[in-house]
Amino acid sequence: MLRVRDLSVRFGDVQAVEQLSFDVAAGQIVGLVGSNGAGKTTTLSAISALVRNRSGSIELDGKDISRLAPHQIVEQGLIHVPEGRRLFPFMSVLENLEIGAYGKAARGKRKQQLEFIFDLLPRLAERRNQLAGTLSGGEQQMCAIGRGLMSCPRLLMLDEPTLGLAPMLVEEVFRLVKTIRDQGVPILIIEQQVVHVLETADYAYVLESGRGTMQGLGATLLQDDGLRRAYLGI
Amino acid sequence: MSQSKRRLARREVLGLLAAVPAVFSSRSALAQEPIKVGGIFPLTGGNSVFGNQNFQGVETAIELVNDRGGVKGRKIQLFKGDGNSPQAAISETNRLASREGVRIFVGSSTSAVGMVASQEAERNGAFYWEGMAVANNYTERDFKNVFRMGLSAAGLGEPAPLYAAEVLAPMLKIDSKNLKVAVVAEDSAFGVDVSRAVIAQAEKLGIKIGLRELYSAKTTDLSPLVLKLRSLDPDMIIATQFINDAILFQRQMKEMNYSPKAFVGTSAGHSTLSLAEAIGKDVNGIFSSSFPLDANLNSLSAEARADREAFLKRYEAKYKVAPAVQESLGFVVGIALARDILGNATSDSASDLREASLKVDVPVGSYINGWGLKFDDKGQNRRAFGSVVQWQDQKMISVYPAANKVHDPIMVPLPARNAR
Amino acid sequence: MDIYIQLALSGLFIGGVYALISVGLTLVFGVLRVVNFAHGEYLTIAMYLTYFMFQRVGIDPFVASIAVVPLMFVLGLATERLLIRPTLEAPHVVQVFVTFALSLFLQNLLLALFTSDFRSVRTPYATAAFQIGPLYVSWLRAAVFVVALAFAGGLAAFLKYTYMGSAIRATAQDRRSARLVGINVDRVYAVTFALGCALVGAAGILLSPLFSVNPYTGADMILVSFVIVVLGGMGSIAGAVTAGLLIGVVESFTGYLAGGELKQLVYFVLFMIVLAVRPNGLFGRKGAEVMDVT
Ligand SMILES: Nc1ncnc2c1ncn2[C@@H]1O[C@H](COP(=O)(O)OP(=O)(O)OP(=O)(O)O)[C@@H](O)[C@H]1O
Ligand SMILES: [Mg+2]
Fold first, then answer.
1. How many domains does the structure of chain B reveal?
2. Segments making up each domain of chain C, as ranges
């Protein structure tokens, strides 16, 4: 579905991503793991065109999307849920969700998508009129994912959705990720919770200083000694 | 020995060089060298209405003098300096002095500009001819080469109470000692100085001032002031206002259905055509003590009458409207500088112009507004007089003093709004 | 007592216009993070447009608004495209420089075109008033007040209930997230800037039967708007309206009780007090990334 080849991003002197290639196939959860500053966020931002000084090819279902503006990429059904939630703090939960369906294609399905999300995340339904800025961290994350889902995505990219959450909530987020995959939306997920991702992901890539150093099935990578030493301290 | 020889040779060369123009073109080369005059006026910015009107008047005068053959055969070249703020006035004065070699300046429409531009000219050893700035302390600075042909704030404001006591009080059938007057003014140096002069003069005449109120000319709502006036109910309002606030004030008085028995402005807003354009017939009956607009023809010299005719013709041809107070003032200032100062000075150096200014003695009635020219030791013209105009049929008509009067005052007391 | 009611009325009326001018300024700041120093010149331009339509064609200012407001909108679009957009990523000083230069340029352009003479729209109803008991109410000022608030209310409704409105609010709160939900942020900027111009244009139209215009009118009027925008909380529409009305009333009362020369001083004191107590302004929130319309 998503095919990235030789993606490179530079910020002045910093080569944030270098010659990175990876794929996300339909029905998959794909993990992108790496330590702080490895270039994970930059990779997602490059795909969603928030970062423009990039090279390489990015294709969605065989179509080159590297020249599109961010809002056009959203129209293509490629949704990026950013690191740190980034909700609209002075809008209610409901408004945040509704604006998730801003793209023209999604507008018509707004009502039914909203029902679907409230079903999936009943807590959001309870808090629909609360200002998003006043939600708890976990609720904010749910709202951010919900906002992403409102646009009826064909592929969802999640940037560290468990950042700063309690272990219980982390479990909940990963359950949600699987549910979404099972609903037919493939997911590209970035995580520092390496064990969790590798357990959940169908396939995973390891990123170090902007380069892809390893890849494989989640379960296989979990067995890799080098990786275990580097990320799990085992 | 060799040294003295060299010195001699140098002197000879210099002498020869000096003789060259005389030999080849006799006097005409010198005669063609124009006299450079720099006009420092606010040509852009908030006060540019007055600046442009003044400048147009000066320019018309210079053109007239040039067309009549110039000053002793030399043309006057007028440079524009846009003193749209005091800082700009300084830099423009310096620019004209250093880049264009201007040593004679004329200005300035507002005191803020005139004060600094004249100071800068004085510092540069140039000559400054002031026509419009009215600040009372303008001539208190002991400058050598700065002369004010026009009025001081006192000269501008004083005719208002004089006219009130002499003419309006009897027409209102009120003893001038019992006349109740409210003074309102915008709060820049202009309004403060002039209103102070008005009050001082009024008190000398025994007129009671019921209220003195200052406000910012940039204000958007004068209804609080109108309310105050209504509850005080003075017989007469004497107002020092710029244009926009003058218009606003008139409109809001009408809105609140209020009118004093007589309204006397002291310029600047009450002596411009914009006022009539803005309020139409409501302008009728309003007086304004101001620089004179016009003079009674009988009080003018033959020369002044010819000037007047030439001025009106030229101005109307060029600008398609009749000149008003500020334009006519500019003309007088320009004519006086060209004809009576430059024309009588031995050279156009500042010191010779100073000499000529100190000596000048032009009788009253020699300029189109009835003025003459004679400076006191502070450099203030003693033969400049304020006058009073009245809006009649939406035109300004001179009504005071006798030398300027061309028509009797009407609408005293002010009739109901629909009868104006 | 009557006089105080009269003062309050006068203050509210003029405050309504202050509010309308300030709403456009605060909107543009809240969304584009650009302080538009040329905002006042758009007021001037609208006043000239209204004046010429009245003078040459005889169209009443209130009717002229049907043409002038869209014209101002288009002018805003053009300005955004040509001058603002290229500087959005640049440091703030560059934007300040650009809008400031635009302000001077427009002043001088208007001066060259129309001279510095004051022009007045003289409508027959300019000074018509009705009386309720001891109160004098100017029809025009009352109408101007109502229309100004209607425009401000219309803007609030637009921001609250339309897709574009939501997009504008979202962009104000988080540009990056706005992009990620599919908002064309460049278009939001263009529309917002144009709306700001249209609103100040509406204010100009409403002011033209009340005040004379020359090239510097807007620059004079706009000063109080900067105070109002900060007082109300930068980026806050509700704040701009409240602060606009407040400043109007405060000016009116100090004009009467303390004399006109103290008016500005008093509201600057008020300003300092409010900012000492609420550093982000009456309705402002930290970070100033606010677009509340409630
Ligand atoms: N806008 C930017 N300008 C300059 N350098 C940047 C910019 N954004 C990211 N970088 C640099 O690029 C590198 C990769 O950053 P990125 O945010 O992609 O890391 P990350 O893998 O997401 O890290 P984390 O797990 O901490 O979120 C870092 O060295 C970072 O400092
Ligand atoms: Mg990151």
1. 2
2. 2-216
